[in-house]
Amino acid sequence: MTDATRDDGADDDATVVPDTGDHDQIVWPGDSAHESRDLHDADDALRYAIEQPDHRRLYTATSYRPRSVTKVKGGVTVYDFRDTGLCPANGGRIDPVLFVQHIPVVRNVPGIADFITLGNVLRAQGLAVQRATDAEGGVALYTRLRDLCYHARGSNSISVGCENMHWATTESWTEKQLRAVAWVLVQARREVGIPIRPAQLVAGNGLAGCARSGYTTHEKQSDAAGYHDRTDPGAGYRSGQVRELAAFFERHGRF
Ligand SMILES: [Zn+2]
Predict the structure, then answer these.
(1) What is the CATH number of the domain that holds 99?
(2) Digit-coded pLDDT (tens) for 78-90
(3) Residues measured by CB to lie within 5 Å of ligand 1, the ion
(4) How much is the pLDDT for 51?
Protein backbone atom coordinates (compact mmCIF):
# COMPACT_ATOMS: atom_id res chain seq x y z
CA MET A 1 0.00 0.00 0.00
CA THR A 2 1.29 3.43 -0.87
CA ASP A 3 0.71 6.78 0.72
CA ALA A 4 -1.53 7.53 -2.23
CA THR A 5 -4.09 4.92 -1.22
CA ARG A 6 -4.25 5.76 2.47
CA ASP A 7 -5.74 8.60 4.37
CA ASP A 8 -8.71 9.70 2.33
CA GLY A 9 -9.87 13.15 3.29
CA ALA A 10 -13.45 14.30 2.85
CA ASP A 11 -12.09 17.32 1.04
CA ASP A 12 -9.10 16.16 -0.90
CA ASP A 13 -7.33 19.53 -0.76
CA ALA A 14 -4.97 20.49 2.04
CA THR A 15 -6.40 21.67 5.33
CA VAL A 16 -5.32 24.79 7.18
CA VAL A 17 -4.81 24.53 10.92
CA PRO A 18 -4.06 27.40 13.30
CA ASP A 19 -0.63 27.60 14.90
CA THR A 20 -1.65 26.51 18.38
CA GLY A 21 1.72 25.11 19.30
CA ASP A 22 0.26 21.59 19.36
CA HIS A 23 2.05 20.39 16.28
CA ASP A 24 5.11 18.28 16.89
CA GLN A 25 7.19 19.49 14.06
CA ILE A 26 6.06 22.38 11.95
CA VAL A 27 8.28 23.24 9.02
CA TRP A 28 8.36 27.01 8.50
CA PRO A 29 9.97 28.89 5.64
CA GLY A 30 13.42 30.12 6.58
CA ASP A 31 14.69 33.34 5.02
CA SER A 32 11.76 35.77 4.69
CA ALA A 33 13.61 37.52 1.86
CA HIS A 34 12.45 34.68 -0.35
CA GLU A 35 8.80 34.90 0.66
CA SER A 36 7.51 38.14 -0.87
CA ARG A 37 6.92 37.13 -4.50
CA ASP A 38 5.08 34.53 -6.50
CA LEU A 39 4.10 33.48 -10.00
CA HIS A 40 1.08 35.73 -10.17
CA ASP A 41 3.33 38.79 -10.12
CA ALA A 42 3.74 37.82 -13.79
CA ASP A 43 0.00 37.60 -14.58
CA ASP A 44 -0.18 41.03 -16.23
CA ALA A 45 2.95 40.37 -18.27
CA LEU A 46 1.59 37.00 -19.36
CA ARG A 47 -1.77 38.46 -20.30
CA TYR A 48 -0.05 41.22 -22.29
CA ALA A 49 2.31 38.80 -24.00
CA ILE A 50 -0.40 36.42 -25.04
CA GLU A 51 -2.79 39.08 -26.29
CA GLN A 52 -0.24 40.46 -28.76
CA PRO A 53 -1.10 39.33 -32.30
CA ASP A 54 2.50 38.36 -32.91
CA HIS A 55 3.12 36.80 -29.51
CA ARG A 56 3.97 33.47 -31.08
CA ARG A 57 6.82 35.11 -32.92
CA LEU A 58 7.90 37.26 -29.98
CA TYR A 59 7.74 34.65 -27.30
CA THR A 60 8.41 31.37 -28.99
CA ALA A 61 11.10 32.41 -31.46
CA THR A 62 13.81 31.22 -29.16
CA SER A 63 16.73 28.89 -29.11
CA TYR A 64 15.41 27.08 -26.02
CA ARG A 65 14.77 23.47 -26.76
CA PRO A 66 14.37 20.60 -24.30
CA ARG A 67 17.50 18.58 -23.56
CA SER A 68 15.44 15.43 -23.82
CA VAL A 69 11.89 14.29 -24.54
CA THR A 70 10.63 11.16 -22.76
CA LYS A 71 7.37 9.37 -23.50
CA VAL A 72 5.54 7.81 -20.55
CA LYS A 73 3.00 5.07 -21.28
CA GLY A 74 -0.51 6.45 -21.15
CA GLY A 75 -0.04 9.72 -22.99
CA VAL A 76 2.37 11.76 -20.85
CA THR A 77 5.42 13.36 -22.49
CA VAL A 78 8.20 14.85 -20.37
CA TYR A 79 10.23 17.78 -21.74
CA ASP A 80 13.43 18.41 -19.80
CA PHE A 81 14.34 22.11 -19.90
CA ARG A 82 16.62 22.00 -16.85
CA ASP A 83 19.91 23.83 -17.39
CA THR A 84 18.77 25.21 -20.74
CA GLY A 85 18.34 28.72 -19.29
CA LEU A 86 14.65 28.86 -20.18
CA CYS A 87 13.37 29.18 -16.61
CA PRO A 88 16.24 29.29 -14.12
CA ALA A 89 15.55 28.98 -10.38
CA ASN A 90 15.58 32.04 -8.11
CA GLY A 91 17.62 31.03 -5.10
CA GLY A 92 19.55 28.31 -3.33
CA ARG A 93 18.67 24.78 -2.33
CA ILE A 94 15.54 23.72 -0.46
CA ASP A 95 14.17 20.59 1.16
CA PRO A 96 10.56 20.84 -0.06
CA VAL A 97 7.70 19.38 2.01
CA LEU A 98 4.74 20.83 0.05
CA PHE A 99 3.64 20.52 -3.55
CA VAL A 100 1.57 23.53 -4.72
CA GLN A 101 -0.71 23.37 -7.78
CA HIS A 102 -1.23 26.52 -9.88
CA ILE A 103 -2.58 27.73 -13.16
CA PRO A 104 -0.88 30.57 -15.05
CA VAL A 105 -2.58 32.96 -17.45
CA VAL A 106 -1.43 31.00 -20.48
CA ARG A 107 -3.59 29.34 -23.09
CA ASN A 108 -2.97 25.75 -23.99
CA VAL A 109 -1.55 25.52 -27.50
CA PRO A 110 -0.44 22.42 -29.38
CA GLY A 111 3.19 21.50 -28.88
CA ILE A 112 5.61 23.13 -26.46
CA ALA A 113 4.98 26.80 -27.32
CA ASP A 114 2.97 27.22 -24.10
CA PHE A 115 5.91 25.94 -22.04
CA ILE A 116 8.29 28.26 -23.89
CA THR A 117 6.03 31.29 -23.43
CA LEU A 118 5.59 30.63 -19.72
CA GLY A 119 9.33 30.08 -19.18
CA ASN A 120 10.24 33.25 -21.10
CA VAL A 121 7.83 35.47 -19.18
CA LEU A 122 8.67 34.05 -15.75
CA ARG A 123 12.40 34.45 -16.42
CA ALA A 124 11.89 38.06 -17.53
CA GLN A 125 9.99 38.78 -14.30
CA GLY A 126 12.58 37.16 -12.03
CA LEU A 127 10.19 34.35 -11.16
CA ALA A 128 10.33 30.59 -11.69
CA VAL A 129 8.52 27.35 -11.05
CA GLN A 130 9.83 23.80 -10.93
CA ARG A 131 7.20 22.08 -13.13
CA ALA A 132 4.45 22.74 -15.69
CA THR A 133 1.83 20.63 -17.48
CA ASP A 134 -0.41 21.12 -20.51
CA ALA A 135 -3.64 19.72 -21.95
CA GLU A 136 -1.85 17.26 -24.23
CA GLY A 137 -0.24 15.49 -21.29
CA GLY A 138 3.00 17.41 -21.58
CA VAL A 139 5.23 17.95 -18.54
CA ALA A 140 7.95 20.60 -18.47
CA LEU A 141 10.84 20.16 -16.07
CA TYR A 142 12.12 23.73 -15.61
CA THR A 143 14.38 23.28 -12.57
CA ARG A 144 15.39 20.62 -10.07
CA LEU A 145 13.03 20.01 -7.17
CA ARG A 146 15.59 21.20 -4.65
CA ASP A 147 15.99 24.55 -6.43
CA LEU A 148 14.19 27.48 -4.79
CA CYS A 149 11.64 29.17 -7.09
CA TYR A 150 9.39 32.16 -6.45
CA HIS A 151 6.04 30.50 -7.08
CA ALA A 152 3.95 30.70 -3.88
CA ARG A 153 4.75 33.63 -1.60
CA GLY A 154 4.86 32.65 2.03
CA SER A 155 6.04 29.09 1.32
CA ASN A 156 8.66 29.34 -1.43
CA SER A 157 11.49 27.95 0.65
CA ILE A 158 9.58 24.83 1.75
CA SER A 159 7.64 24.00 -1.42
CA VAL A 160 7.75 23.13 -5.08
CA GLY A 161 5.12 24.14 -7.61
CA CYS A 162 3.53 23.18 -10.90
CA GLU A 163 1.95 25.60 -13.39
CA ASN A 164 -0.87 23.78 -15.21
CA MET A 165 -1.62 25.58 -18.46
CA HIS A 166 -5.01 27.27 -18.37
CA TRP A 167 -6.27 30.71 -19.20
CA ALA A 168 -8.83 30.78 -16.38
CA THR A 169 -9.77 28.83 -13.25
CA THR A 170 -13.16 28.09 -14.80
CA GLU A 171 -11.76 26.00 -17.66
CA SER A 172 -12.13 22.23 -17.70
CA TRP A 173 -9.17 19.84 -17.54
CA THR A 174 -8.29 17.03 -19.91
CA GLU A 175 -7.69 13.54 -18.56
CA LYS A 176 -4.21 13.73 -20.09
CA GLN A 177 -3.38 16.87 -18.12
CA LEU A 178 -4.52 15.23 -14.88
CA ARG A 179 -2.25 12.28 -15.75
CA ALA A 180 0.61 14.70 -16.32
CA VAL A 181 0.05 16.18 -12.85
CA ALA A 182 -0.07 12.67 -11.38
CA TRP A 183 3.26 11.83 -13.02
CA VAL A 184 4.74 15.03 -11.57
CA LEU A 185 3.56 14.07 -8.06
CA VAL A 186 4.93 10.53 -8.36
CA GLN A 187 8.30 11.86 -9.47
CA ALA A 188 8.36 14.33 -6.56
CA ARG A 189 7.55 11.56 -4.09
CA ARG A 190 10.38 9.45 -5.42
CA GLU A 191 12.91 12.26 -5.69
CA VAL A 192 12.26 14.41 -2.61
CA GLY A 193 9.80 12.29 -0.59
CA ILE A 194 6.66 14.46 -0.69
CA PRO A 195 3.74 12.06 0.01
CA ILE A 196 0.80 12.05 -2.41
CA ARG A 197 -1.85 13.12 0.11
CA PRO A 198 -3.43 16.39 1.25
CA ALA A 199 -1.03 18.49 3.30
CA GLN A 200 -1.73 20.14 6.61
CA LEU A 201 -0.78 23.77 6.42
CA VAL A 202 -0.21 26.00 9.43
CA ALA A 203 -1.50 29.55 9.29
CA GLY A 204 1.16 32.17 9.82
CA ASN A 205 1.47 35.91 9.41
CA GLY A 206 2.52 36.18 5.78
CA LEU A 207 3.89 32.66 5.90
CA ALA A 208 2.36 29.21 5.60
CA GLY A 209 4.07 26.44 7.52
CA CYS A 210 3.64 22.72 7.10
CA ALA A 211 2.49 20.32 9.83
CA ARG A 212 2.03 17.37 7.47
CA SER A 213 3.84 17.00 4.17
CA GLY A 214 1.73 16.59 1.03
CA TYR A 215 0.03 18.55 -1.72
CA THR A 216 -2.03 21.73 -1.70
CA THR A 217 -3.68 24.14 -4.08
CA HIS A 218 -2.30 27.66 -4.28
CA GLU A 219 -5.67 28.87 -3.03
CA LYS A 220 -5.26 26.96 0.25
CA GLN A 221 -1.62 27.95 0.61
CA SER A 222 -2.51 31.62 0.10
CA ASP A 223 -5.31 31.31 2.66
CA ALA A 224 -2.90 29.76 5.17
CA ALA A 225 -0.35 32.53 4.65
CA GLY A 226 -3.09 35.09 5.30
CA TYR A 227 -3.18 36.62 1.81
CA HIS A 228 -6.44 35.06 0.59
CA ASP A 229 -5.67 36.43 -2.87
CA ARG A 230 -5.25 33.31 -5.01
CA THR A 231 -7.99 31.11 -6.43
CA ASP A 232 -5.95 28.75 -8.57
CA PRO A 233 -5.95 26.08 -9.84
CA GLY A 234 -9.78 26.31 -9.58
CA ALA A 235 -12.70 23.95 -9.21
CA GLY A 236 -11.90 22.00 -12.38
CA TYR A 237 -8.79 20.62 -10.75
CA ARG A 238 -9.58 17.25 -9.15
CA SER A 239 -7.05 16.46 -6.42
CA GLY A 240 -8.70 13.13 -5.63
CA GLN A 241 -8.69 12.00 -9.26
CA VAL A 242 -5.03 12.96 -9.59
CA ARG A 243 -4.27 10.94 -6.46
CA GLU A 244 -6.01 7.88 -7.94
CA LEU A 245 -4.11 8.29 -11.20
CA ALA A 246 -0.85 8.54 -9.28
CA ALA A 247 -1.63 5.39 -7.29
CA PHE A 248 -2.42 3.54 -10.53
CA PHE A 249 0.83 4.70 -12.10
CA GLU A 250 2.83 3.61 -9.05
CA ARG A 251 1.28 0.13 -9.25
CA HIS A 252 1.46 -0.40 -12.99
CA GLY A 253 4.18 1.90 -14.31
CA ARG A 254 1.73 3.36 -16.85
CA PHE A 255 -1.52 5.27 -16.98
ZN1 LIG B 1 -0.80 30.09 -8.20
Answers:
(1) 3.40.80.10
(2) 999 999 999 999 9
(3) 102, 218, 232
(4) 75
